[in-house]
Specification:
Strand content: under 5%
Shape: globular
Helix content: over 70%
Order of helices and strands: HHHHHHHH
Number of helices: 8
Number of strands: 0
Largest sheet: none
Length: 188
């Protein structure tokens, strides 16, 4: 992330480097998203194939259903962003939706019962933060319009909500391992 910030400053100070900086950032983001969705996308492709579907466990089938929903929503959000030519919150929301697949996979990889229930709640929380951030942004904008400029909204809050969703998704495996250690019915 520091390299991305540094490259932005480089592109602003030396406009002749803009194309190369933009190309490097594009390669970085494509690689990051591809690495994030590689496993869920592979399971989704297997799920859609009649022969490949038999290779998946029932839990993997459920996870691939939810992963498919997340990936389709991410594509929809990016299509809306591209069509509207704006909306600073939309690309981070799409990234959070793709990263939500990590939390879904961690949930369905967790042992059934106590651990999986906690992981389901955490995944739901991470999922609700994404549209919740947009709702908070809309509430702030309505309050700003109704107050005629006297209200100063904490405009970064929606971005923090999306960031929290990204963090929860990124550390979902570690949370599942923590819950596995804390489970009350574990065998010593």
């Amino acid at each position: 992330m520091l390299a991305l910030r540094f490259s932005d400053k480089l592109a602003k100070s030396k406009p002749e480097w803009f194309f190369w900086v933009w190309l490097g950032q594009a390669v970085f983001w494509i690689a990051a998203v591809t690495l994030t969705i590689a496993n869920p996308l592979f399971d989704l492709v297997l799920r859609l194939d009649p022969e490949g579907r038999r290779a998946l466990t029932p839990d993997k089938l459920k996870a691939s259903n939810w992963n498919g929903v997340c990936l389709l929503l991410a594509l929809l959000v990016m299509a809306i962003w591209a069509a509207s030519k704006g909306g600073r919150l939309l690309p981070p929301m799409a990234l959070a939706l793709t990263c939500l697949t990590m939390a879904i996979n961690a949930t369905y990889s967790a042992s059934e019962g106590w651990v999986r229930k906690r992981m389901q709640w955490i995944t739901v929380l991470a999922g609700l933060l994404i549209p919740g951030s947009y709702i908070v942004l809309l509430v702030f904008l309505v309050a700003l319009v109704n107050s005629k400029g006297t209200f100063v909204p904490p405009i970064q809050l929606p971005f923090y909500m999306v960031g929290a969703s990204l963090l929860i998704s990124a550390f979902a495996d570690e949370l599942a391992a923590y819950f596995e250690k804390q489970r009350p019915d574990k065998i010593h």
